[in-house]
Every structure is written in structure tokens, then in C-alpha cells.
Write a structure and sequence with these properties.
The complex is a heterotrimer of chains A (448), B (494) and C (135).
Chain A lengths: L7 H11 L29 H13 L8 E2 L12 H7 L2 H4 L11 H18 L3 E2 L6 H16 L3 E5 L4 H11 L5 E5 L20 E5 L10 H10 L3 E6 L18 E5 L15 E5 L12 E5 L5 E5 L6 H4 L12 H39 L13 E5 L4 H10 L2 E2 L2 E2 L10 E5 L6 H14 L4
Parallel strand pairs in A: 1-12, 3-4, 3-5, 5-6, 6-7
Antiparallel strand pairs in A: 2-8, 7-8, 9-10, 11-14, 13-14
Helix pairs in contact in A: 5-10, 6-7, 10-12
Chain B lengths: L55 H12 L22 H7 L2 H4 L11 H18 L3 E3 L5 H18 L6 E5 L5 H8 L3 E5 L9 H7 L4 E7 L11 H10 L3 E5 L19 E3 L20 E3 L11 E5 L2 E5 L16 H14 L3 H19 L4 E2 L9 E4 L10 H10 L6 E2 L9 E3 L7 H20 L1 H5 L12 H6 L16
Parallel strand pairs in B: 2-3, 2-4, 4-5, 5-6
Antiparallel strand pairs in B: 1-7, 6-7, 8-9, 10-11, 11-13, 12-13
Chain C lengths: L13 E2 L4 E6 L2 E6 L1 H7 L4 E3 L6 E2 L4 E6 L4 E5 L4 E6 L2 H4 L3 H4 L8 E5 L11 H12 L1
Antiparallel strand pairs in C: 1-2, 2-3, 3-9, 4-6, 5-8, 6-7, 8-9
The chains are: A alpha/beta (448), B alpha/beta (494), C alpha+beta (135).
Chain lengths: 448, 494, 135
């Protein structure tokens, strides 16, 4: 095996130095009754040639572009990844290094993460961002745990228009710790119903996602005012950070903690992971923050450099009193996102965001013109819900046969949404793709 | 004298991205606009973030220069104890980048994602076979999330028996993630010390175990590099009081094909695909931390689970006792593909991985123990722990020695951990280092120890060769500067 | 780190096993951490001071000192209400290193029971304990 460099000669020389007669004898510290009986029953070993064929066969079964036209978003977005990103990520000095605990030989990772922290703070309109968490879902759970650390209140209100999986993850994280979770209903125009907040007492945090799961922009300023008036923090969640290239940032609207998914920024969809948990907050809460932070400093000669800092919050020092149990995060994905944001720049980000918006508005408009329902009236970014006439499941499957994935059926997520579909249009969908989708739908519903 | 890898050369400076660029540049090609502009809600519209505009060449040069200031496994030996910094096979990267995987949406209908589901289902079976456990969930995104999942299983299991338990036993050699994960589930950790052989004794666990204790978290082999030889007795004690046994699989690289964790009575175990199964650490992630359980705990695993029926695969969520979801989608699939490729590439030869990892560690232990103080002089598994005891009279610390190691071209070992060995130097060479490299590492330490006597300032001020020297961590923490230009509320202030 | 002979232990203070000191100033008790504690911890980068107005029991955790890579909890030498905290530590946590008994004080307590002072160690007893630790 090419990864194992030892020759038989090496092994016998080394055993001699150790004073052992065989490789098996090295395991004398493992009691007999703990030994595995028989060998491992695994396939292989396969050659690299065989592996290529096996993996290609598996990959071939997956419905991906350009063969398939996929109008799916819902927390994972198909954006174009420029060649520079994959090329730069191929620098194995980034990918094969460990967490930068030895700063003298990790300045590349440290500066890249420091810049990532800056990008994220600017994007979300916040003061401080951490070096990443796992994904948007666990970032939201951590955001709520953090809010409870800040104000000591274990009661949280979650918008029902937060990604359903995110809400499930929040429950997994919060329930054993004795949290009370209240779900806020939604309005007919596709926004969170905030009116109930006023009557809630002892609320520690209000969590709202914008753009929300049905694609609509929330009224974060109103949510912030209401949350603050009850003494709660506003935790703003998101799944599509590109929206802040067009719309006002959650921080500028009064959010205290912003957390969400950064996959859109140059990270391959990879069937859902790895993603990137983006996490930012106001500076006054930094000591309650989960995750790693990179800070700027100087070396002995006065040269600028970077180190991991405020580490006393973390598990390796504070153990059971740490602000989170997280250790390995999504470091390389954070660097990827920074490369992507650097490549776009401020002007490019704005233009790309606008393009996503305009394309999605185009499809929305065409569907409306064709007589299909657009049930939610609140402004959207690159996702929106369409309501098809009854019997839509059969139509959806016919489109699958034609290699079109016409969005996400919402029937399994919300009651009463049997014929509603969440459609996503990024810059990777062409006008031609959209026209084809509309004409196929029209063909399937001749009377619509 | 041998020639070491450490050398000097031209190191280029590179400013912060935010000190570069010019308005109007763009480093990325955008698609041609094929639709009209639509009006945007004026109240919601913003100005967009104040990012610098950079040309493609600026971006490429920036990150290429940054990369040269980093040290990775591909650069040189990286003997970080308990981190298993083995070589990351390149073919794994190629497989994960296949368009069918990399471009796949996680919510594709099941009939259009059979390849990924099959890969995940088979990886679960492989990991079950390797650990001797019965069922696996691939969802946890890293080791610590795997631990959390394990603790949630403990919590749910006791809950299903109608009881609440408030404590958990954690050895003093455990990683900090263990108590931190347990605390998230409301368990307060009870520390148990190791004996003079560096392992847990049955008596110590018996004294701590009671009916208010949910169970024990054991890292096996432990962070001193020893197999917990009393594990069967410990398992019996914990089970007798109704508790469960959790194994932190951070050090599984020592016992692949040698120990069946299921057979020795472990109830729950997490693995680190980014340690044992060769996926790259990425400068701090992403990793993956699959959770493995025995049959009686399978109903508690995270959902969705992957189910096979007549050769086709689907995601099933109908498990009422499940702890729930931990990840927005199915976990870090990109990492799973790499681990799957690795396991297929080695097959049953994985056992040899552990044999050679243990061979390398014992070889280093024998060679280095004449130079450094060995904390426990007995055969080790995949790692060995030394200390600075012999150098302390010279006022030379562990930190001084390992910083000097950088000048010789090696990444330092894990230091000052485990806490039970003052001034610990914890070395895990892994199986992918060849004998010549290990010999060179020993020679470097020999030189350093010599320098400690002859020229201690060389060590106190090391390293000399990297781009920067020792950094002022105190001022970094006293006056945190966490963004490039003093960002306040999303605005650049300078 | 300092040898035991280099450690300062002012005579007018009383000490705890956890390395806090207490000084009676009229009907108030001023508290802080000892020279030994700051020396062990190294450069202190952050001080979490007790909460103003809160009552703590003797021995209760009331704050923490952080260095770059360690955290040490501060425990109440005597029970009582916090009536003042040293706000200078917010901007200059290093005062605990440079002047642990003077400018680096941590809080002032209105004691519940002044006789709790008598349970604390004298400078000699504390030094004796430190010599034991240093061996």
C-alpha cells in the first residue's frame, strides 16, 4: 500500500530497537480478552484504478447540473464556483494543516481566518465574527445557548419560518439543558407573526430567519424592537448570505447575534456538507461567544502577526464551563468563503446578488402571468413559493422524468401546503431554463 | 551532521486583503445578464458590504503567499499527539470532487441520489465492522459533535427508563471536549485519576460510580498512549449500576482490526474521520464524527437514518426515541466520501495501519527516552508522552524545545497535555512516517537537548526561521483586535 | 516563577487556601488574590469581578482570573455583599500581576459575620503552606 512506507527490513530493524519479536507483540498491553477475533471483514483493498471506477459509478447516479435543471434551494444553493477557488484550495499547506495552535508556522491559516472574520462582520453588519462553526443549524443552536449565557434566561421564541431542520437541531441541542421553546406562527404574507412576543415573559432570545424558509425577507427591525423591549436578544439566522449583497444586513437592523450558513460562498453543495456555520455578534458579548477567534498582535521583533485568542472561553481550557464544546470547526470552508468574497469584492457581490434577485423575480413574474399562485406577498431574494393547482405531485414527478427538479415540495414541512413548492433561482439558472420550466408547467395544466 | 529540512529562504510579505484592491476591480467572472431589472423594496434595500474590489491575480497571489507561511502534513512530519496527523491520500480528494457528489443538492429526491445514499450506507457498515458496534450515524460534523450526540444518547436512554442522572465519570486524562459535551446535556463531570501505570483502575471507577451517574467517558487508548487494560472490569462496574460506557474514539488509529469495541462492552463510541480515516484537517476542520452504538441504543441514534430495501436506499425519520437532528442535512458527506475511499483502498489491511502506527510510536519512544524524560516507561500504543523534567534545571521548558524543533523543520508535538504529566510532550508519529524521517526527528531532538546545555538562548528565543517569531499572546488577549480595520457594526472604521 | 523566599505576604492580611487575601478596613473587607496566585497564573489578561450588590457565601465562587491559557476561579474569603469592585481591572488586568495587594485589589465586601476573618490563615501559616506547595 502506497501510504505505508515500511519495508520488511525497516520493520525488523525497528522491532529490534524496541526489543519485540513481532508486530503482534507490540500489542501486549491489550489484554487477550479485548482482542478482536478474526480479521476485519471489509472489501478491498482496491487499486486506485478500481476505486476511480467504483466512485464514478456511484457519482453517476446523482442528479446534478448540467444534465439536470435543479430549482432547489432551502438551505443549500447552487452558485458558480470560480476555478481560482478550487485551485487555491488545492494548496495543501491550507488543507493538510491542523488547527493553528503553533502560530509561527500557521500564519497563512491565521491571516486568512482573520480576514474571514472581517468579511463576515462587514457582511452581517456586526462587530465580531468567529472562525466558524459546523453549519447554519448548529450555529443557530449555539446562538441561542449564547443568548441564554448573556441574560440567564432559558426561554426562547423561534419563528416557524426558520428552516425546519434548523428548528429540529435547536431542539436537539436545547431540550436536555431544560430550555423552553415557543414557536411563533406566520402571517399570510409569509412573515413571522411577532405580535405574540409582547405577552411573553422571561424571554431570553427571539430567533428569526431572513430571508426565511419560504424565501421572504422578515421585518428584522420590528423583531429587534420587540425582542429588546421584552429584555430578549435578537438572534438572526440565515441560509443565504448572498442576500446581504442586496438587502440591509441583520446587524444594521438591530440583531444582537447573527448566525447562519455560508455554503453559498464558494463551497460545494456536496449533498449537504461540509457547510460553514457563520457566527457574529456585538463586541460586548464576545466573551460569551462560542468557537475560535483569531486576533492580531506582534512578534518579538515587532512584526505583525496573528494568534488564536480569548481561548479561555474554549473547551480545552475551560472544560465543562466552556462556552461551547466545539473544537474542530469548518476552518477550510471559512477560508474558502473568504477567497470567494475576495474574488467577488464589494461591487461583484452587489452585482451577483442583484442578478439572483432579478432572475428569481423573472421566474416569479412568468409563473404569475401563466396563472399560477404566488401565495406570499412579502419581498423575496432568490427563493419564493409557488402554488400549483391540485394534483401537483404527478406533475412534479413528470418534470423529474424530464430532468427538472421543480423546487422543494412543502407538503411535508407545513400543514396545508400540499401543492406549494419552494423554488430557487440563482445566477446558474438561465432564462431559457426558466422559460422551459414555465412552459412545461403550462403544458401540464392546460387550463391554468 | 545530518541535513535537516529546516532552512531559510525568501519569504514574501503580503498585506491584508483590506489594504489591497481598487474600486471597480472584480476577481471573478459573472454570467451574462439575460433578464431585466426588477424593482427592489426600498426600505429593505441596503448598500452592500464594504469589501475591497480585487483583481483575480491579486486574489491568487494573496492566498498563494499566505499558504507558504503554513506547515501541513504535506510539508513535513506533524507528530501532534492524539491528533493523528497522517498523510491525506490525494485520490480521496479527487473522489470527493466528482461532480456527482460535489454538485449534489441534499434535498434531491431519494431516487435521484442513490449513489450518495449507498456510499453512506456502506460506510456505516464498514465503521460498524471496524469498531464491532452494531449501528452507526454519520451525521455528527466533528468529534465534539459526535461526543455531544453520544451524551444525548445517554440522556435519552436514561430518560426512556424514566430516570434522570446528574453525573458522569470523566478521567483526568480526557480531552476538554468530553466534559464540555457532557455539560451540554446537564451532566456534571466527576473526575477520576489514573493509576501509576497511567490507566484507570477498576477500584477508582467503582468508588465514583453510583446510581446518580449516567456512565463513564473513556478514551481508549488513552491520551498517555496506553490501552485501558481494565476496561472489561470498568464496563462491568458501570453496567451493574445501570450506567453506560462511552468511548472517545480519538485514538482509534492504534487498534484498527486489533480490538472490537463492541465485544468489550462499549455502548457508544464516536470516531474522527479526520484522524483515523485520513481526511485532511483543513487547518481546523471540517471533520466528521460518526456515532457508533450497540443494538440496544440504536433507537436513539440521530435521524434521518439510511435504510436499504431491495438494493435501493432511502432516508427514514420514523424513530420516536431518536435524539433528533444534529445537522441541517446529512452530515459532512464530502468528508465521508474521503473516508470511504480510504477504507476501500486499504480494506482488511487497515490492521496493518495500526500495527505500523504502534511500531513507529514505540520506536520513537525507545530512541528518545535516552534524551528526554519518559513519563511512563512501558510499551505504548500509538503515542508516547515525554516531559521537560531533565531540562528544567537548565531553565529550559517544553515550549522552548518544541519551538526550536520548528527551526529543524518539524511541526511540534502536542504540548502540556495530558495535564497529568507536567510539561508534557506528547508524540504521535502515525504510520505514514518512514524510518528515516523518525531517525531525523530523534536527531533533531538530540541537537536541541545539546543546545539546551550549550546555548539556552537559542531555545528561549526560538523559533528563528519562520516568517514570524514568538507572538505576544498576552497583548492579543488584553486588547483583542479581531477584525482588519476595526469594524464596528459592519462599517470599517479606519 | 518566584522562589518561596521571593513571595510577598503582607502582615496585615489574612489568607485562604485558594490564595485569596482579605483585609479589614473599618467595617468593610477588601479582597484580592495573592502574589503566589498571580505568579502561578502569569500575565493576567482578563478579570471577571464579582457582581455589584450580590451576596456571596464564604467560599463561594465569585469571579475569575484569566491568563492566555488558564483560568483561576476566585472564591469569597468571607461571606457578604459586594459593595465595590475594582473597575480599573477592566482596562488594566495586569494590575493584579504588578500590585496584587494594592492597586490590583478585586472587590470590597460588607461582611455578614466579621468573625469569619478569624478562620483565615495568618501570613506565617500561609507562607508555611506555600513552602509545602513549592516542594
Amino acid at each position: 500500500m502506497t501510504y505505508l512506507p515500511h519495508t520488511e527490513e525497516d520493520i525488523s530493524e525497528m522491532l529490534q530497537v524496541i526489543g519485540a519479536s513481532s508486530l503482534d507483540e507490540l500489542f501486549s498491553g491489550v489484554p487477550e480478552d479485548c482482542r478482536m477475533a478474526g480479521g476485519l471483514k471489509l472489501p478491498g483493498p482496491v487499486t486506485e484504478w478500481e476505486l476511480n471506477d467504483m466512485m464514478a459509478a456511484l457519482a453517476k447516479t446523482m442528479a446534478v447540473a448540467p444534465e439536470y435543471k435543479v430549482f432547489l434551494g432551502a438551505g443549500s444553493y447552487h452558485h458558480y464556483i470560480p476555478a481560482t477557488i478550487s485551485y487555491l484550495l488545492g494548496r495543501s499547506e491550507f488543507s493538510t494543516s491542523y488547527t493553528p495552535y503553533q502560530p509561527e508556522i500557521s500564519q497563512g491559516t491565521l491571516q486568512a481566518v482573520f480576514e474571514y472574520q472581517t468579511f463576515v462582520s462587514l457582511l452581517l453588519g456586526m462587530d465580531v465574527a468567529n472562525a466558524s462553526l459546523y453549519d447554519g443549524a448548529s450555529a443557530l443552536a449555539e446562538g441561542l445557548l449564547m443568548a441564554a449565557r448573556v441574560n440567564g434566561l432559558k426561554k426562547v421564541a423561534l419563528s416557524s419560518l426558520i428552516h425546519p431542520s434548523y428548528r429540529q437541531v435547536v431542539r436537539t441541542y436545547l431540550q436536555p439543558a431544560g430550555f423552553e421553546i415557543i414557536e411563533l406562527p406566520h402571517t399570510p404574507e409569509g412573515r413571522t407573526e411577532l405580535a405574540g412576543l409582547k405577552s411573553l415573559e422571561g424571554l431570553g432570545a427571539v430567533a428569526v430567519q431572513s430571508p426565511n424558509f419560504v424565501g421572504c425577507m422578515e421585518d428584522l427591525a420590528a423583531a429587534a424592537d420587540l425582542a429588546h423591549s421584552t429584555g430578549a436578544l435578537l438572534v438572526a439566522s440565515f441560509t443565504e448570505p448572498l442576500a446581504f449583497g442586496l438587502y440591509r444586513s441583520p446587524g444594521s437592523l438591530g440583531a444582537d447575534i447573527c448566525c447562519g450558513e455560508g455554503q453559498s460562498f464558494g463551497i460545494a453543495q456536496s449533498y449537504g456538507g461540509p457547510g460553514l456555520g457563520m457566527f457574529a455578534c456585538l463586541k460586548r458579548y464576545v466573551r460569551s461567544m462560542p468557537g475560535r477567534l483569531v486576533g492580531r498582535t506582534e512578534d518579538r521583533d515587532g512584526k505583525p502577526g496573528f494568534v488564536l485568542t480569548l481561548a479561555t472561553r474554549e473547551q480545552h481550557i475551560r472544560r465543562e464551563k466552556a462556552t461551547s464544546n466545539i473544537c474542530t470547526n469548518s476552518g477550510l470552508c471559512a477560508v474558502t468563503a473568504a477567497m470567494y468574497m475576495a474574488s467577488l469584492g464589494g461591487s461583484g457581490l452587489r452585482e451577483l446578488a442583484r442578478l439572483n434577485y432579478d432572475k428569481s423575480e423573472y421566474l416569479k413574474n412568468e409563473l404569475r402571468k401563466a396563472g399560477f399562485g404566488i401565495p406570499f406577498s412579502a419581498p423575496t431574494f432568490n427563493e419564493f413559493v409557488v402554488e400549483l393547482p391540485a394534483g401537483s405531485q404527478a406533475v412534479y414527478h413528470r418534470l423529474l422524468d424530464r430532468k427538472m427538479v421543480a423546487g422543494l415540495p412543502l407538503c411535508s414541512f407545513y400543514p396545508g401546503m400540499d401543492d406549494r413548492y419552494l423554488l430557487c433561482v440563482t445566477e446558474t439558472r438561465t432564462k431559457m431554463d426558466m422559460d422551459e420550466l414555465v412552459s412545461r408547467l403550462k403544458a401540464d395544466y392546460p387550463v391554468a | 551532521m545530518k541535513e535537516f529540512a529546516g532552512s531559510s529562504g525568501l519569504v514574501l510579505n503580503e498585506p491584508l486583503l483590506f489594504d489591497r484592491g481598487k474600486r471597480g476591480r472584480c476577481g471573478m467572472s459573472l454570467p451574462r445578464r439575460d433578464v431585466d431589472h426588477f424593482p427592489v423594496d426600498e426600505e429593505l434595500e441596503g448598500r452592500g458590504p464594504d469589501f475591497p474590489d480585487l483583481a483575480e491575480t491579486e486574489v491568487v497571489r494573496h492566498y498563494t503567499r499566505l499558504s507558504t507561511w503554513n506547515f501541513g502534513v504535506d510539508t513535513g512530519m506533524y507528530p501532534l499527539g492524539s491528533c493523528t496527523m497522517k498523510y491525506n491520500p490525494k485520490t480521496n480528494e479527487k473522489q470527493a470532487a466528482l461532480a456527482g457528489f460535489a454538485g449534489a443538492h441534499p434535498l434531491l429526491p431519494e431516487e435521484l441520489s442513490q449513489g450518495a445514499l449507498k456510499m453512506m450506507f456502506e460506510l456505516e457498515r464498514f465503521l460498524a465492522e471496524i469498531t464491532g458496534m452494531d449501528a452507526v450515524s454519520l451525521q455528527p460534523a466533528a468529534g465534539a459533535q459526535g461526543e455531544l450526540a453520544g451524551m444525548l444518547v445517554f440522556h435519552a436512554y436514561h430518560g426512556s427508563k424514566g430516570r434522570r442522572r446528574s453525573k458522569i465519570i470523566v478521567p483526568d486524562t480526557a480531552h476538554g471536549t468530553n466534559p464540555a459535551s457532557a455539560a451540554l446535556c446537564g451532566f456534571s463531570p466527576v473526575k477520576v485519576g489514573s493509576n501509576d501505570r497511567g490507566v484507570l483502575s477498576v477500584e477508582a471507577v467503582a468508588a465514583a460510580m453510583d446510581e446518580d451517574t449516567a456512565g463513564i467517558m473513556v478514551t481508549n487508548p488513552n491520551t498517555l498512549g496506553f490501552f485501558e487494560e481494565n476496561i472489561r472490569g470498568i464496563v462491568d462496574i458501570v453496567h451493574a449500576k445501570g450506567g453506560l460506557v462511552y468511548a472517545d474514539g480519538a485514538n482509534m488509529n492504534a487498534v484498527l482490526g486489533m480490538v472490537s469495541m463492541g465485544d468489550i462492552g462499549i455502548d457508544v463510541l464516536h470516531l474522527n474521520l479526520h484522524k483515523t480515516f485520513s481526511t485532511p484537517h483543513g487547518g481546523g476542520g471540517p471533520g466528521a464524527g460518526p456515532l457508533c452504538v450497540r443494538k440496544h441504543l440504536e433507537p436513539f441514534l440521530p435521524t434521518p437514518r439510511i435504510v436499504e430495501e431491495g438494493g435501493s436506499y432511502r432516508l427514514a425519520s420514523d424513530f420516536p426515541l431518536s435524539i433528533g437532528k444534529l445537522h441541517a442535512f446529512h452530515g459532512n458527506v464530502g468528508i465521508m466520501i474521503r473516508a470511504y475511499s480510504y477504507i476501500l483502498s486499504l480494506g482488511p489491511e487497515l490492521k496493518r495501519v495500526s500495527q505500523l502506527a504502534v511500531l513507529n510510536a514505540n520506536y520513537l519512544k525507545e530512541k528518545l527516552k535516552t534524551i528526554l524524560h519518559l513519563a511512563y516507561d512501558r510499551p505504548c500504543m500509538h503515542e508516547c508522552v515525554f516531559s521537560d523534567k531533565l531540562q528544567a534545571p537548565l531553565k529550559i521548558s517544553t515550549l522552548d524545545m518544541v519551538k526550536r524543533l520548528i527551526d529543524y523543520g518539524f511541526h511540534p508535538p502536542t504540548i502540556y497535555f495530558p495535564l497529568v504529566v507536567p510539561g508534557a510532550i506528547m508524540i504521535e508519529p502515525t504510520e505514514t512516517e518512514c524510518k528515516e524521517e523518525l531517525d531525523l526527528f530523534v536527531e533533531a531532538f538530540r541537537e536541541i537537548v545539546k543546545e539546551a546545555g550549550e546555548n539556552p538562548e537559542l531555545l528561549h528565543n526560538a523559533p528563528w526561521r519562520p516568517k514570524v517569531r514568538r507572538l505576544d499572546e498576552t497583548s492579543a488577549a488584553r486588547n483583542p483586535r479581531l477584525t482588519c480595520a476595526g469594524v464596528i457594526n459592519g462599517e470599517r472604521k479606519s | 516563577m518566584k522562589e518561596s523566599s521571593e513571595l510577598v505576604t503582607p502582615g496585615d492580611l489574612r489568607y485562604t487556601r485558594d490564595h485569596e487575601w482579605a483585609r479589614v478596613e473599618g467595617d468593610v473587607i477588601r479582597i484580592g488574590v495573592t502574589d503566589y496566585a498571580q505568579d502561578q497564573l502569569g500575565d493576567i489578561v482578563f478579570v471577571e469581578v464579582p457582581k455589584m450588590g450580590r451576596k456571596y457565601a464564604k467560599g463561594e465562587e465569585c469571579g475569575a482570573l484569566e491568563s492566555v491559557k488558564a483560568v483561576a476561579e476566585v472564591f469569597m474569603p468571607v461571606g457578604g455583599e459586594i459593595i465595590a469592585v475594582n473597575s480599573a481591572l477592566e482596562g488594566s488586568p495586569g494590575l493584579v500581576n504588578s500590585a496584587p495587594y494594592t492597586d490590583g485589589w478585586i472587590a470590597e465586601v460588607k461582611p455578614e459575620d466579621l468573625s469569619e476573618m478569624e478562620g483565615l490563615m495568618t501570613p506565617d501559616a500561609y507562607l508555611e503552606m506555600l513552602r509545602g506547595l513549592k516542594e
